[in-house]
Please model this.
Amino acid sequence: MIPPCLANSSLWFLDMRMNIFHGIIPQTFSKGSRLTILNLNDNQLEGSVPLSLVNCSFLEVLDVGNNRINGIFPAWLGALSELQVLILRSNIFHGPITYSVTRFPFPKLRILDLSNDEFTGVLPTRYFQKFQAMMHGNNNSAEGGNMYINYGNEYYSAILTVKGVNMEMEKVLNIFTTIDLSGNNFQGRIPEVVGKLNSLKGLNFSHNKLTGLIPYSLENLTQLESLDLSSNKVAGQIPRQLTSLNFLQVLNLSQNQLVGPIPQGKQFHTFSSDSYNGNMGLCGFPLSEKCSNDEVTEPIQDREEDDTWSLFDWKKAVMGYGSGFVIGLSMEYSVFATGWPKWIVRMVERKQSRNTVIRMLIQGARGRRN
Model:
């Protein structure tokens, strides 16, 4: 057992991870405690998270992952304004994520790992709205000049799922920001507000019972390196906007109910079929299932400023130069000669004569051949 006296000590850093401690966590953390980092990961602890931890106002890290702790989500931890890391993964927590009575809960939270528990209900939208440290690029610079989460010469180590792989991080960067709610029983839609957490490096909602569409707002997660929505019941098409996520290295949308063409371009060219397996309605690269003509969509391209006429793309008329030029020119001339569409003819006639228009087309074609 963990000696109860440790809860009343003057310790700043308490690391008792990867032992065989059993029993409960001491329940008597006193007011005025200077405890900054509490790491009890990978033991055999039971019971609940002690309410007296609310007295540890300097607490930055609470890691009780990989134990046998039960109870509901400790919403009262939201009052700890310095808390940056909250890891409750692989325990027996259950029930819905209740909301804190604190007006601005978890303002500095950067790492939230509630994976592999038994949480139910909908995703905690109200918390997502308050995670200020995950918004506005606040994680681009380390606080106080510290690159890692530490106290003095002691560094916080964590076991986290990073880009789909469980790994031990001997030192956790201050700029590392992630949410992992995988392996629970959450249901309902993925809230649009998640798109405001634009400092996220990792987002994992896999192995739940989520439904609805993938929000377009995820395109705002410009720092995202890993996105895992696998093993849910998410439907609809994959938003083309996700191709704008330039740092995305790992994508897993497998085992859902997605349909339509897979977006093409940028990072999406690097993903294998494993990212999409189990979605019978998907088609296009890298899957063997080809898309029909009415399903194919073009990749997102950067818009370029066009100083030509905006209401008609003359390039299309001369796109097939050589043998195709004659056909294109004939079709173009036919449009003007027949008076259809009349609004285009009137627009052109106000600027120059028909002969001038045709001459421009010929010159443009010759320029392309040269």
Notes: The radius of gyration is 29 Å. The mean pLDDT is 80. The helical segments are 125-128, 323-338, 342-351, 354-369. The longest helix spans residues 323-338.
